[in-house]
Amino acid sequence: MIGNRITYRTADGVRIPGTWRHVFIRNGGHYFLTDLFIYADGLIDCWGLVTVVEFEEKLRTGWVATSFPEGGEASAHELADWKFCEPKSWLTPELLVAEVRDTIDQLNGRSDSTGRCLAAVDVFLADRTEGNRAAARAAFLNIPESQRRYALGDMDSKDRPLRVLVAGPGAQTYLPFDGTVTQEDYDSAVAYFEERARWTAERATRVPADGPATPHAPAVQLYHSFPTQPVDDPGMLGLRHDYPAPITVKGTRYPSVAHAYWALSVADPETRLAIAAAETAATARVLATEAPRREGWEHARTAVMTRLLKAKYDQHPELAEALLATDDATVIYDDMNSTFWGDNAGRGRNWSGRILELVRSELQAQRAGILEM
User: Fold this and answer.
1) Pick from 108, 107, 204, 199: which is nearest to 152 by CA?
2) In this predicted structure, what is the pLDDT of residue 372?
3) What is the enclosing helix (H) or strand (E) of 318?
4) What is the DSSP annotation of 279-309?
């Protein structure tokens, strides 16, 4: 259900992951094709946030429609209008609710009805009693019928091996056209699952060629602060751009990376000198804000910040050690003045954190002798 349709909403500064699908809303006898947003906290945006129970009521009353009358008028907002002609629907209210509940499980990383079915199948294959088969069959039939064909993730076999296995020899599957399951059908299904188990075990032992996809170290958050004086052991504070760690760039000395960034951002040379001499990074920012930017600055700023951070950690080995100590952690950088540079409780783009991770990677490459810098 989720696929590539990933979205989110923000509630109390917390990012709630979600996904969406198409549905029809019936309003005043007219049908509107719209998006149904489903979120991990169990809320559903259906022209307004509702709970699953409230969504079921909208389905019961037909406000969210799963069946359509011949000649019914419909529209897709600002795209098209039409009338239904021989309408057919793949869903019922019960199926749509079941799919929504599965989606909420998926968004939370829990087993959905398909996961619960496959777990029951594993139990049956390990101990092939009729009781375990009945449990696996019940779990299989609890998968919304519209989703059963995808249960194995095999678009060639669809769900046939699964429905044959849980039915057993001499029985019938839930599809009438399958007929009675023969012993040969059943043996083929068992062989399919045995091969699937071998393949799954092999896949689990494979190590990605260039390492894991996600960090193993806990995320590091660099909270917004206003450091004005260096300290003996700054720790994570030393990773802030406004920490007073002077850097020299092209013969000019700046009290901090922030000073250098703001000085380089302005067009007027005299203002640059004033920013470089500012008492604090906050003052440097204010001076830069009041002056015209250099042409094309918004396109160059990430490259400039990258160069400045490389200079900082090249010129301050003790701070480079602090950065390296974060291992491969995601760096979350707060910046109350910028949603471009800061993460800001998930509302910003966190470019500062991303570039710090890049510079850290280059330091690690240097240390390992992988790159000649």
Assistant:
1) 199
2) 67
3) helix 317-324
4) SSHHHHHHHHHTSPBPTTHHHHHHHHHHHHH
Mean pLDDT across the chain, nearest whole number? 94
Amino acid at 35: D
Residue from 63, 8, 67 nearest 40 by CA: 8
Q: What tens digit of pLDDT does each residue of 158-183 get?
A: 999 999 999 999 999 999 999 999 99
Token pair recorded at residue 174: 């839930």
The backbone torsions φ and ψ at residue 274, rounded to the nearest 5 degrees and listed phi first, read -65, -40
Q: What is the token pair recorded at 299?
A: 């396109």
* Amino acid letter for position 258: A
Chain center to CA of 38: 14
Pairing state of beta strands 14-27 and 64-65? antiparallel
First to last CA, the chain: 46
pTM of the predicted model, to two decimals?
0.67
Contact status, residue 45 vs residue 82, Cβ threshold 8 Å: no
CB–CB of 194/165 below 8 Å?
no
Specify the pLDDT at position 7: 93
Give the Cα separation of 92 and 100 in Å (integer).
12
**Sign of the CA dihedral running 370, 303, 320, 356:** negative
